[in-house]
Structure prediction request, 843 residues.
Amino acid sequence: MPSTSGVSTSRASTSGASRSGASRAGAKPAGAARSAAKTAKTAKPAKPVKPVKKGALAAGAARASGERAKRRSTPLIASAAAAAPVAPVVQAVPAAVAAAPDASTTPSSGKHRPQPVAKVVPTRKAVARSGSRTTKPAKPARPAREGTAVATASTRHTEAEPKVRTLKAVTDETVVPLDVADPTTSRSIAPGVEELLTAGIAAVRVASEAAGISSDDVERHIASLLSFVRRRVTGDYTVDEFGFDEDFTRHFYLPVLRPLYKSWFRVEVRGIENIPAEGGGLVVANHSGTVAMDSLMTQVAVHDEHPAHRHLRMLGADLVFQTPVIGQVARKSGSTLAANPDAERLLSSGELAGVWPEGFKGVGKPFSERYKLQRFGRGGFVSAALKTGAPIIPCSIVGAEEIYPIIGNMKTVARLLGAPYAPITPTWPLLGPLGLIPLPSKWIIEFGSPVETADLGPNAADDPMLVFDLTDQVRETIQQTLYSLLMQRRSVFF
Amino acid sequence: MADVVLVTGVSRYLGGQFVRALTQDPTIKRVIGVDVIPPPGDIGRAEFVRADIRNPMIGKIIAQSEVDTVVHMNVIATPTHAGGRTSQKEINVIGTMQLLAACQKATSIRRLVVKSSAAIYGSSPRDPAMFTEDMGPKSLPRAGFGKDSVEVEGYVRGFSRRRPDVEISMLRFANIIGRGIRTSLTDYFALPVVPVPLGYDARLQFVHESDAIGSLLLATTGPSTGITNIAGDGVITVAQAAGMAGRPLIPVPMPAAGIFGNLVKRSGLADFSSDQIQFLAYGRGLDTRRMREVLGFEPAYTTRTAFEDYAQGVGSAIPGAGIFGSAVTGAAGSAASAISHVWAAGRND
Prediction:
């Protein structure tokens, strides 16, 4: 190794490090043995144990201690030191013999020379800066401390585990697998808790029977809710690369929207068979309603009405993902950014994507322009479908325009808040929070027959004329369907 | 292919581990490790040379040893390890400049491997779900490590223009995690209570430290070159990760996050910079198709198993938190089982 000036070279090896470590460790017992030998030597002339010449002895001891201090820092032969036990004074003679050559090898006038290998041993600072975690990994498992109240809690947990596992399968559709007849497992529940729970459950049964609801249903729901809570707490669920959390969507998000879907808007779905049972597809729909409730209802419609219970993966504006809470819920329920890379990724992985190309122009348009489609963006959705060969399914939503009719727009407020619009509706902001309740219009969602794009080939996406034509075709289909649905509608609310 | 390999940053955890793994390869004649402090661990048969890459001296070492492969691992992600942000930037940016200047002069160099980071993609609500290698950041990282990484990559691009004969391999790592490594994110999830931005649940991707070393080895000795994302499969969210590590969450509103982050930083518990908070709000995903198809690397750990491995190492922060947690889940479990028990009894009548 050619070493240049200013560059210090050292061979870092284990053997060097371990040797220096051993010699350091060895230094102490050797020093002790030597000191024992020394006292034995000086004590030798006065064989009767009591020291007679005190002054001479003290001087010797003082001399020796100075030398000892020097020697202690110098490395010694480790093996000899290790072999020598810490000798009591009585057996001092062999120890002194062992230590004698040792003492002679050390130069009496020897200066303290630091071991060069010792440099390789890192300082605390070096270790701290190295980016490695030196803190002891804490106990591998939570130790169950016997004899304390704590032990009952932890054992209860471990014994309850298998039953928790069986409950993982709990969904709204399936029945809870029952293997609870095992007496040992039921006993494992702490007695107080079990009795309390049994009493509670009995109370729920009685209450539900009094209310005329099937008690089995109630219990099944509570059980699935509890297992949902447990999965949430322990992180025992999977999220796909877009952030879609199926567990959350099925057990929390859709159940929350369902009353609105079934009882409030009484959504009627037509043409659900136009959505393919598998493979990619792009649902393109009109946007309206001040608050983008139409996209949420379409999502519920696709999941609940389609025989394959597909999830509609919506493409949302970046404003959605910027907003706290809303952005989080949107990602978890399967939405992702409305951009070509994400749309193509979704479609090519065989997902059903949903897009509302009018964007905020559609949602925030005044009530007077209801059911008039706005410009369909730049046709990015068509090029995504062309590139992946996914069919485009036009979707017309009637009823969403009337939930919050916009009669005015507070432009200054919107600019201050950084929002695309700040609506005034007949009830908002006049009635305060009451204005947030949507009007209960009757909705119809119709899925049209799919426009196939696979036969055009992926290169068709580079032909802007074709992309514009397809965009117009889809837009026109939705507009015509909207008009015919409006003709068929008896009234806004029924 | 690689005869004499020079590795920078060997005294840091990942550098030391990488060098040790590299010396296992018998086809490599010499491995030279460079850093300013001696390596704390065993670096195998590698030779340690004490030199600062911010000093032109590094050029002499490269020239005299006829180094043909340079692995640049001295890009430091965590300011606390570098002795502050100023020093971190100095090491990352000036160090890379000097090293590349030295490499440009050295005729023996045939390959340059750079450990870069996914931090160059930044984190914003306008990000695509998954970044491929040819995508740029939607909002350029303006501070901290992300900015350093962007600058480092800029210098590497400049170098590749001036020395087209040198093969360049740049690996963009997702957050590296494991039992041994210490980063700002491992400190973060080791906090007794994990503060999260209110109303956000970012997607995280991890790569296990052993996979990081494996991919670097492949980039050093394998046939492929170019920019490659390295990440474990799948994503987990911040809340999920905290649940797996057994840490309770405290949501902190985003406007207050800066103040809160500074407090945590002052206390020395974990490092919070503004780009870190952005990352914890919006997260990031990497597309790893190129890692599989071009680099030919198959990670042994998924994001989830890598994090589980880390979480096993940290244990519970508050004594009794684990027991409390298990009591809660145990109670939920026993409640659920009791319900199904009673339900079964009800069905039998």
Observations:
- The first strand of chain A starts at residue 8 and ends at 10.
- Chain A has three domains: 15-108, 149-234, 246-403+438-488.
- The first helix of chain A runs from residue 14 to 43.
- Confidence is low (pLDDT under 50) at residues 1-33, 35-49, 74-109, 136-189 of chain A.
